[in-house]
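Incident review: delayed structure delivery

Summary: a single-chain prediction request sat in the queue longer than the usual turnaround. Root cause was a stuck worker, restarted by the on-call engineer. No data loss occurred. The affected request and its eventual output are reproduced below so the record is complete for anyone auditing the incident later.

Affected input:
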Amino acid sequence: LPIDRNAAAHLELEGETITILVKPDFAFRDGSRIHILDWKTGRADSTWEQVQLVAYRLYAERQWAGTPGRICARAIYLYPE
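Output delivered after worker restart:
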């Protein structure tokens, strides 16, 4: 799936819109599911990783009309220990 160069997710919080810049590495559609992959080369940081993947899901909802339960975002570690 095409990823905008200036991609952003938007989060509505207490009447305000928060814009989060995102840069997923790869995305594809498999039937009605959207898969987003983010390549990782460093050590795992599960807290930051989860925040990042949630932002990618928000982006996919708007960008590709994804259904929340049908969007899978994963971190792929290229150099696992």
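Verification: The mean pLDDT is 89.
Action items: add queue-age alerting; document worker restart procedure.
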